[in-house]
Design goal:
Length: 187
Amino acid sequence: MGVAGAGALSEYMRIEVLEAGPARTVLRMPVAGNTQPYGLLHGGASCVLAETAASIAAALHAGPGRSAVGIELNASHHRSAVSGHVTAVATQLHGGRTLVSYEVLIKDDSESRICTARVTCVVRAQSHSALPAPPSWHDEPDRDSAPPRPRSAEGCRNLKHAAVQLDSEGICGGTVDRGERSARGGT
């Protein structure tokens, strides 16, 4: 299965999803068409493959109503590939509420390590993002239900508001704008 999205770089590079989950995601990409002028796999192509694998896993970790965006990528290129395919395996190193990190190993068809990457993504409420909802990368049905309410003030912050209201269980009950907060004597 390919990675969906009109005009997506992953479509252009012919990246296909072999397995997708929040703890482990596996992608494959052909070397042909993703090379530098010397005919070797381009290092940037390895980085795109690594970040795509980690981003898919992070989006699945985030769950419905939340998004994941890459904020850091580190890659070490060990050897080159000149033909066939390269396969990326993203394995979760840390899965928190706001940050998730992956180690991504990229190997060629003979199982030789081509690249080792580490990718960190930030997870946030979808409603606070200018990004569209990501496509579905697995065969689960679409969830049309409302996103779950965040369970902390941190997950509930909105850049337009200075404070949040939490109910007795610590669940976000809405926001308080600056004027309303000042009127109640808050800081």
